[in-house]
Design brief:
homodimer; six-stranded antiparallel sheet; Jelly Rolls; five-stranded antiparallel sheet; 1 helix
Chain lengths: ~140, ~140
C-alpha cells in the first residue's frame, strides 16, 4: 500500500547535469531536484520536480514523448515555441506542452527562474530528452 | 494539433463550490481556478489548478480514484492523513496522494494557504470527490 508522502524543496537532493548529458545538449547551468518520483517514494502516474535556471541560463529547445506542464514559481523568462519564436513567461504561469512538442526556456532576467515540472509518468527517468542542437542529433 | 498554452493564475477564472457541492460535503470557503484542463485548452493526460484556503478554512477529508499531487505554493497548514491523524505542511512541500487515499487540508494559520493540485487526468471534471462527512455518504 502506497503512503501519502511530503517532500520539501529545501530538503531535496539537488542535481546538475552529467558531462554525458551536457555533451548531448543539456545545460551545465541548471539545478534540479525530484519531489514526486518512483525513484523517491512508492508513487506512480505522476512525477514532478523543481528546476532552477540562474540568471541568463537556458534550458535548450528539446522534445520528449510525454506531455508536460510547468508551473512558474518565481522569476521571468522566455519560452521557446515549436515554430522557433519565443514568448514571455512569468511567476504564476502554468504551461502545457503537448506530446513531442518542441520547447525550452531562457532566463532573460537578473534573478533565478524557478519552476515545477510535471509529467504523467512514474518517474523522470521514463522521459528521454532530445536536444535539437546536440552532437548526438547528427548520429 | 495541440498547442503550447500559458495560463496565469492572476488571469484565471475563479470558482467557489456550488450549493449542491456544499451539501455533498464541500467547503464554502474555498476558491479555485483551473490552469491546465481539457475544459480550457486542447490538453490531455494532465490537469492542474490552484486552490486557495483562507485562514481557518478546511478542505474536508475526502477520497477520489486518481492519484494526486499538491505543490504548496504559499502558507502553512495541516494535511489529513488516512489514519485520522494530521501532519504539518508548508510552502514548497510537494505531496503525493495515492489512488483512493483519504486526505484533506486545514489552514491553521492567519494567512491564505495556496496550492497547486495536479491530476493525471484530462480534466478536473474526470475526478469524483467523495467527502466522508457528507449527507450523501449515508445513501
Amino acid at each position: 500500500m502506497a503512503d501519502i508522502t511530503v517532500t520539501n524543496i529545501d530538503e531535496a537532493l539537488w542535481h546538475t547535469h552529467t558531462p554525458e548529458e551536457i555533451a548531448a545538449g543539456a545545460s551545465q547551468d541548471l539545478r534540479y531536484c525530484f519531489l514526486v518520483d518512483k525513484a523517491l517514494q512508492n508513487s506512480h502516474g505522476l512525477s514532478l520536480g523543481c528546476l532552477i535556471l540562474p540568471a541568463g541560463a537556458e534550458l535548450p529547445p528539446h522534445t520528449h514523448q510525454p506531455q508536460e506542464a510547468y508551473f512558474i514559481k518565481k522569476g521571468t523568462g522566455q519560452l521557446h515555441l515549436p515554430d522557433g519564436t519565443k514568448r514571455d513567461v512569468r511567476e504564476n504561469d502554468a504551461v502545457y506542452i503537448p506530446e513531442n512538442e518542441r520547447h525550452g526556456l531562457v532566463n532573460t532576467s537578473d534573478e533565478p527562474l524557478e519552476l515545477i515540472w510535471i509529467f504523467p509518468t512514474d518517474s523522470f527517468a521514463d522521459v528521454t530528452y532530445h536536444y535539437e542542437d546536440s552532437a548526438s542529433q547528427s548520429d
